[in-house]
Amino acid sequence: MNYRPEGSLFRSAANQRYISSAEGLSDAMENGIILEARAAVCDSSHNLIIDLPCADGIIFREDGAVGISDGKTRDIALISRVNKIVCFKVISLTIGESGKLTARLSRKAAQEECIRNYINDLRSGDVIDARVTHLEQFGCFVDIGCGIPSLIPIDAISVSRISHPSDRFALGQNIKAVVKSNENSRICLSHKELLGTWEENASQFEAGETVSGIVRSVEEYGIFVELAPNLAGLAEPKENIHAGQNVSVYIKAIIPEKMKVKLVIVDVCEDPGRSEEMKYFCRSGHIDSWKYSTECSRKIIGTDF
């Protein structure tokens, strides 16, 4: 079983086959298969009503998520699932007096299996799939499998500083993350190590080019412009420039020994819109260490996992 963020299985042919008939649901129950469908309603008792083509699906409150029954997880974790895809295992199938099939489902059971067979085995340096679920000033919450949440702190999102995670991510975006630690199934994540070293990023640019960038901060001594998520340069001061603007910049110099890029702002541009596809330089499923700094730089920036 490949334990993915919720929504990854929903449109698959196998999932649709299982949820579309009583026979399919029975087969999934017998074999312990994790399925996905849309949560249509969270009722007044905080039970989730699941939209199934062939049955009345229900996830009772205590089966809604790991930690609900003992108070470690708040009920907002259930309320917030309405109109979203949720994972579950089929617990029982019964025929009511009306002749309609009722399926009792458990999201908690799916999460417990995910924790047992996947989360518990994650180690520092493992590169995993995640899906952005919530953005706060202090960081980005992601689903790392079957709706199990983890946090990427804002300072771990990229080397180029951002004022809010929404500067980098969008809700529902599929991303990669790297495990920094796993203590009692509590996963701490980072992201910047997957976005390349200074040298890898700088190699995409040449002195004399005019390229696009995003203003990240305006200081008395100059303006920091992001050229890539892990690369920013310093432009000369210019009036009427503020953080968040899209600009075109002339690259005066690229200086590896100082890890600096000198820029001149040419013009302010319209927002071209952001691609949700992140460029990752890491190609493996695990990294032991990451060194952002260049070999000729006195400043050492990196991470050991």
How many helical stretches? 5
In the CATH hierarchy, what is the architecture of the largest domain at level 2? Beta Barrel
User: Any idea of the CATH topology of the largest domain?
Assistant: OB fold (Dihydrolipoamide Acetyltransferase, E2P)
- Share of β-strand residues: 35-45%
CATH superfamily of the largest domain: Nucleic acid-binding proteins
Strands across the major sheet, in which order?
1-2-3-5-4
Please tag this protein with its features.
OB fold (Dihydrolipoamide Acetyltransferase, E2P); 3 domains; mainly beta; 5-stranded antiparallel beta sheet; 5-stranded mixed β-barrel; 38% strand; elongated; 305 residues
Q: Care to describe what's here?
A:
The protein folds into 3 domains: 13-117, Nucleic acid-binding proteins (OB fold (Dihydrolipoamide Acetyltransferase, E2P), Beta Barrel); 122-194, Nucleic acid-binding proteins (OB fold (Dihydrolipoamide Acetyltransferase, E2P)); 198-269, Beta Barrel (OB fold (Dihydrolipoamide Acetyltransferase, E2P)). The model has no long low-confidence stretch (mean pLDDT 95). A hairpin with a 5-residue loop joins strand 4 (85-95) and strand 5. The longest helix has 11 residues, at 107-117. A 5-stranded mixed beta barrel has the order 1-2-3-5-4. Strands 8-7-6-9-10 form a 5-stranded antiparallel beta sheet, with no helix packed on it. It has 305 residues and is mainly β. It contains 5 helices and 17 strands. The radius of gyration is 24 Å and the shape is elongated.
